[in-house]
Write a structure and sequence with these properties.
It is an enzyme of class 4 (lyase). It catalyses: (2S)-ethylmalonyl-CoA + H(+) = butanoyl-CoA + CO2; (2R)-ethylmalonyl-CoA + H(+) = butanoyl-CoA + CO2; (S)-methylmalonyl-CoA + H(+) = propanoyl-CoA + CO2. This is Ethylmalonyl-CoA decarboxylase. Belongs to the enoyl-CoA hydratase/isomerase family. Its EC number is 4.1.1.94. It is a single chain. By secondary structure, the protein is of the alpha/beta class. Helices cover 51% and strands 13% of the residues. It has 14 helices and 9 strands. The strands form 2 sheets. A 6-stranded mixed sheet has the order 1-2-3-4-6-9, sandwiched between helices. It has a 3-stranded mixed sheet with strand order 5-7-8. Helix 2 crosses helix 12 and helix 6 packs antiparallel against helix 13. The N terminus is likely disordered.
Length: 303
């Protein structure tokens, strides 16, 4: 229980933070309330396989975050989750950055959770979700304009990852869908909260409960995707960079970053932590449950 003296100290800290900058106040409150994730990080790192790589170009101000587990369509392992958190940490310290592109190696963004990892971690759902919520919230709140390059079969957790970026650019041959309900699950990595804010309640319910797998035209019509790459394109990553530069990154770096921070501050003034907490608890009730286990046994994800 907090004492009156403790409350007074916390009030003083928050007052000082708010007086420093209205732009950073809400973000500072988020970090004050951030849980201790080190034990979860240590455990997740034991689930090996794949990697997440980061390239930062100071001349253009564009970074590329690449998921690499190509033999499994870049599905996420515990180690990859730790790698991604480390990459986000580097981006938080990168002062020259304007934009970020999240993509996958070999023409796929991400097909969700690596099923080998999933089967080994059926007892570890809430902890894994807590770690991913933290990483993806930090990614979304970066003072960079972020874009997910949606390629291949971006399903389940892969579709969730795409919502942790400000925008989504989609390959003409790609598919995207929130198929968690087919797997006996709710969303693991915060997509229900982010989708509701992005598209509104009705569309979020539709996409999450129908498990529809969308082609580019439908994804664009729903407002989930912001740009569909032309069919005649030799380099989809370069086209995404061009789209990012053309639309957002031609202006002064410091002003761009300040504007993004203003938008983040406005967004965080709503209580996202409560929504994510609810989402995490509901997911934990389905992870490792009989419906998910049955779906895993039937290898239903890609059917």
């Amino acid at each position: 229980m907090c004492t009156r003296a403790t409350n007074k100290v916390l009030h003083g800290v928050l007052k000082q933070l708010k007086s420093q900058s209205n732009v950073t106040f809400a973000r500072s409150v988020y970090y004050l309330n951030r849980p201790n994730l080190q034990p979860i990080r240590t455990q997740l790192a034991t689930f090996e396989g794949g990697s997440v790589e980061l390239e930062m170009d100071n001349s253009s101000g564009i970074a590329v975050l690449t998921l690499s587990n190509p033999r499994r369509l870049n599905s996420m392992t515990g180690k990859m989750m730790v790698d991604m958190a480390d990459c986000v940490g580097e981006l938080e310290l990168w002062k020259e950055g304007k934009g970020l592109i999240m993509c996958g190696e070999g023409g796929n963004l991400c097909s969700g959770g690596d099923l080998t990892f999933v089967r080994k971690a059926l007892h570890y759902g809430e902890e894994m979700a807590a770690y991913q919520h933290d990483t993806l919230t930090r990614l979304l709140n970066l003072p960079l304009i972020s874009v997910a390059l949606v390629q291949g079969h971006t399903l389940g957790g892969g579709a969730e990852l795409s919502t942790a970026c400000d925008y989504r650019v989609m390959s003409p041959s790609a598919k995207i869908g929130f198929v968690q309900i087919k797997m006996g699950l709710t969303t693991a990595w915060g997509a229900a909260t982010r989708l509701t804010r992005l598209l509104g309640r009705r569309k979020a319910i539709d996409l999450l409960c129908s498990a529809r797998i969308l082609l580019p035209s439908a994804a664009f019509h729903e407002g989930l995707v912001d740009y569909v790459i032309p069919r005649i394109c030799d380099d989809e990553l370069q086209e995404t960079k061009n789209w990012l530069m053309r639309n957002f990154c031609n202006y002064d770096t410091s002003i761009m970053r300040a504007i993004k921070s203003l938008v983040v501050n406005a967004d965080l003034s709503m209580d996202m932590s409560v929504a994510l907490d609810n989402e995490r608890k509901l997911f934990a009730q389905t992870w490792g449950g009989p419906v998910q286990r049955k779906a895993l046994d039937a290898n239903i994800k890609h059917k």
